[in-house]
């Protein structure tokens, strides 16, 4: 999702970019990574093991991508002088706070995925103290890939009601908006205007998965009362999820950049895109008694 949106943003900006798929570059291969990085001013790492539940039983494999792979990228950037933007996650934090986590907050992942992503953060901080940027994000959705927003629209066409978790708080973030923020940060980094370190690339505001689902229904012209609240315990999964994934955004000011917009604003824009609009139209068509608002 993020990689494709980032390429679209870069193309619109007229930037030259080399985009490598997993088949074209294995980030766990140090020599291949070094060769790929050579000649580039800025590297954005959108490669990751993102199967959160799968990481519980395959932590070494996840760590090879999320930890060792990032270390290879950071080492290659250190050798070539390139700057690195590493995309990380809220899951490096313990998720037990009551107020938004500052960028300097102590880490403490509660699952294997978070532990492996923290290895990547540590590699960037160690090898690129002046030219490494870690951008933590969370609750991503976009047109290009499986995600919660798309799933809600698909289920809306199949089920009369949905039960959605209401005891996890976070910041739904559109990949297009994050891609634009990464581009802006990259330009600021190349200009020497952005201090290295951790940034939080999530939407402003906060909600729960239940709140997000209801807003998806409302914006799609569907009855939000069809979404019912439930608890995390009702959906047991291999990996523990943080209950609180709300991040603070103070460091953007140091880079001369504004934080991402409110999550509702992002969602409204996203649902206007063709992929989401088509899913919403199908959901309205399948819902008896629901008018199609187009």
Automatic annotation (TrEMBL):
<dbReference type="InterPro" id="IPR029903">
    <property type="entry name" value="RmlD-like-bd"/>
</dbReference>
<comment type="similarity">
    <text>Belongs to the dTDP-4-dehydrorhamnose reductase family.</text>
</comment>
<protein>
    <recommendedName>
        <fullName>dTDP-4-dehydrorhamnose reductase</fullName>
        <ecNumber>1.1.1.133</ecNumber>
    </recommendedName>
</protein>
<comment type="pathway">
    <text>Carbohydrate biosynthesis; dTDP-L-rhamnose biosynthesis.</text>
</comment>
<dbReference type="GO" id="GO:0008831">
    <property type="term" value="F:dTDP-4-dehydrorhamnose reductase activity"/>
</dbReference>
<dbReference type="InterPro" id="IPR036291">
    <property type="entry name" value="NAD(P)-bd_dom_sf"/>
</dbReference>
<dbReference type="Pfam" id="PF04321">
    <property type="entry name" value="RmlD_sub_bind"/>
</dbReference>
<keyword id="KW-0521">NADP</keyword>
<comment type="function">
    <text>Catalyzes the reduction of dTDP-6-deoxy-L-lyxo-4-hexulose to yield dTDP-L-rhamnose.</text>
</comment>
<dbReference type="InterPro" id="IPR005913">
    <property type="entry name" value="dTDP_dehydrorham_reduct"/>
</dbReference>
<feature type="domain" description="RmlD-like substrate binding">
    <location>
        <begin position="1"/>
        <end position="271"/>
    </location>
</feature>
<keyword id="KW-0560">Oxidoreductase</keyword>
């Amino acid at each position: 999702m993020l990689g494709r949106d980032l390429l679209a943003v870069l193309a619109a900006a007229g930037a030259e970019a080399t985009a490598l798929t997993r088949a074209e570059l294995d980030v766990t291969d140090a020599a291949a990574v070094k060769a790929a990085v050579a000649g580039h001013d800025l590297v954005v790492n959108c490669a990751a093991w993102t199967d959160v539940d799968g990481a519980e039983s395959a932590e070494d494999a996840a760590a090879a991508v999320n930890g060792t792979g990032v270390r290879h990228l950071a080492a290659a950037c250190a050798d070539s002088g390139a700057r690195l933007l590493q995309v990380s996650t809220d899951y490096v934090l313990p998720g037990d706070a009551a107020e938004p986590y500052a960028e300097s907050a102590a880490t403490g992942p509660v699952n294997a995925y978070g532990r492996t992503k923290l290895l990547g953060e540590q590699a960037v901080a160690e090898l690129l103290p002046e030219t490494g940027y870690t951008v933590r994000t969370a609750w991503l959705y976009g047109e290009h890939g499986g995600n919660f927003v798309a799933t809600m629209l698909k289920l809306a066409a199949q089920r009369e009601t949905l039960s959605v978790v209401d005891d996890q708080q976070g910041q739904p973030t559109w990949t297009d908006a994050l891609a634009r923020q990464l581009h802006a940060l990259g330009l600021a980094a190349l200009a020497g205007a952005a201090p290295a370190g951790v940034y939080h690339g999530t939407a402003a505001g906060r909600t729960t998965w239940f709140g997000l689902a209801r807003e998806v229904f409302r914006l799609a012209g569907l009855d939000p009362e069809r979404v019912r609240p439930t608890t995390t315990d009702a959906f047991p999964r291999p990996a523990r999820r943080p209950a609180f994934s709300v991040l603070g955004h103070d460091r953007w000011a140091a880079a001369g950049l504004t934080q991402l917009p409110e999550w509702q604003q992002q969602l409204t824009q996203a649902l206007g895109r063709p992929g989401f609009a088509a899913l919403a139209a199908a959901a309205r068509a399948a819902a008896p008694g629901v008018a199609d608002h187009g």
